[in-house]
Amino acid sequence: MEIRPFTADDADAVVAVHRRAFGGRTDESRIVRRLHDADKAVVSLVAVTDDRVVGHVLFSPTTVAGHGETVRLVGLAPVGVLPEHQREGVGSALIRRGIARCRAAGVDAVVVLGDPEYYGRFGFERASGYELDNEYGADEAFMVKPLYEGALDGVNGLVTYRPEFQTKE
């Protein structure tokens, strides 16, 4: 399996990955397309096996109320893997490589809204422990991973995702 940056040529395959990964739901694929169209993908990676895109992960900017540009947070969402390639480590590899790319790009921390048991494996912790809240009202499922010691010192407040995450057309 190869993990490489997303290119415009991958767009249709990535849409198909997210639709299949999420049981035919289209919200995730629309979010990916909107973020790419707005040039707001900080990190976007695809997993390729036998010349076929089998997985995708995207990290996009988020904001923390009252902190403007002083902290650089990104949201990990969405991550999708074709059903026939799930439980093969594709998603984990995409997440790990994506976090490394975020760190190299100068990102302070990554937030995610998802299963605490799954994302805990990557070092994500409950964001409320850092006094970070979210616009979805989630507690345990809203997590953060600081990318270096002290990354979130003095940072607290409401984390907001990009407008492209609004699912209504």
From TrEMBL:
Stored InterPro entries: Acetyltransferase_Eis, Acyl_CoA_acyltransferase, GNAT_dom
Keywords, ordered alphabetically: Transferase
One GO term of the biological process aspect: aminoglycoside antibiotic catabolic process
Pfam families to which the protein is assigned, alphabetical: Acetyltransf_9
Superkingdom: Archaea
UniProt domain N-acetyltransferase: residue ranges: 1-148
Single GO MF descriptor: aminoglycoside N-acetyltransferase activity
Cross-referenced PANTHER family: N-ACETYLTRANSFERASE EIS
Official protein name in the record: Acetyltransferase
Species name: Halorubrum aidingense JCM 13560
Lineage per the UniProt record: Archaea, Methanobacteriati, Methanobacteriota, Stenosarchaea group, Halobacteria
